[in-house]
């Protein structure tokens, strides 16, 4: 790893935004620098499925003219970002990482796409992902899997694989991922960046290709906590086009960007997230334990909590996910199964073989878990856990079915819909990043952001970038 | 539908389930998918094993 330099492609959104607003940096210069970074690295990283270089430069020139004429739109204006390739983009191919949608060109932007554009962000392109946001990496799909910038022989995690590799390597200053069982926080953790899964319904899913209606979440992936707050601000809020979109008011997340965790009570469900288990790497747990100690030293009160439903949450998440995915993809699965990759075709077919009783019992477990977490959140302000059970695995010998074995540290917050963030908290002995997960009450993204920001400013892991 | 006696199915049982779902899988696909499906049987067994006791745990519907 290398100490951070201040090459333009390594600026954070916050840093670049200040320079852009002051007229000390041009969106054209910034976008050109990031495009050069992509050109120099993407033959190794494979973050992008579709690069929109000419379009991005045109948007940068427009942003430059707007800012110069005093029409500054806010912290994303002139910032080059990219989207996981399941966000519909009008006139731009949106593949979902699949041969099924290889030539699909939407006519409208997804709501998150449109909101980022309205905030002045510049779209660099569409990012690699595990097919239809499940499983992978799968070599039987038409796109090369993204690689981990910290070690190219290792996976990024998924399913927002290209989002993580692009942000970690400086190919994009921010990205959107999507998350049904951990697809934002997981790759963020494995690639040493921040990933924020907001509360279910906080961000519209309209125009975002479905994996599981009741568990899909949209959220940002960035280098720092403040950058995720800026992106969330742009995309959050009710959308009549998404029936699951919440009408809860959207607070000003920038107000949460201040240090302070003194007096907050943090719950540790040790029995599931920290105690020894065959599926959990003790080195990951040790790194996160150290971070918890640091939170305590910053004034947080740490208490142990018991959540017996956690033992069933992974099962509920998985059954609901593949059942809903089957319902969504059934026509294509039956008419053109050969166009799905091997992994997703199998998992979706399993969704078609589960029973209504299986699905409903999984939903009842979900209700149980939701109540149990709500009870615990009357006694604690936040939960802190490791984000992932393992560091990034090597491609060689990797078995994608490993992702359906053992514990999942991210799925509980998809099942319950609670907001959760992954923030970098150290490295393994072999130099692979480790993330800490902080989760909170429904729609209390401000508390989650503030805790993550407090830790980030104390630990300053953002000063280290992968040496690619 | 899914019996979890030892979390294993015979190939005949598995083929019946796949056919009932209208998935049209050939023998090779069935043989590939069966062990993965058996992993999922562990999950279905888990959710069916929960005793919610007297607590009413409903899948909700709101008419508004």
Care to describe what's here?
The complex is a heterodimer of chains A (468) and B (64). Chain A is α/β, with parallel strands linked by helices. Chain A has helices at 13-21, 27-45, 53-68, 111-118, 161-169, 185-191, 225-235, 270-273, 282-297, 310-335, 342-353, 356-376, 411-415, 445-459; strands spanning 2-3, 48-51, 80-84, 122-127, 174-179, 194-197, 217-222, 265-268, 301-304, 382-386, 420-427, 433-439, 464-465. Chain A has a single domain (9-309, 361-465), classed as Amidase signature (AS) enzymes (Alpha-Beta Complex), CATH 3.90.1300. In chain A, helix 5 (161-169) runs parallel beside helix 6, helix 10 (310-335) crosses helix 11 and helix 10 (310-335) packs antiparallel against helix 12 (356-376). The longest helix of chain A is centred in the last third of the chain and has 26 residues, at 310-335. Chain A is globular. The relative contact order of chain A is 0.15. Chain B is an all-alpha fold and 64 residues long. Chain B has a domain at 11-49. Chain B has two helices and no strands. Chain B is elongated and about 45 Å long. Classes of the chains: A alpha/beta (468), B mainly alpha (64). At the A-B interface, helix 10, helix 11 and helix 12 of A face helix 1 and helix 2 of B.
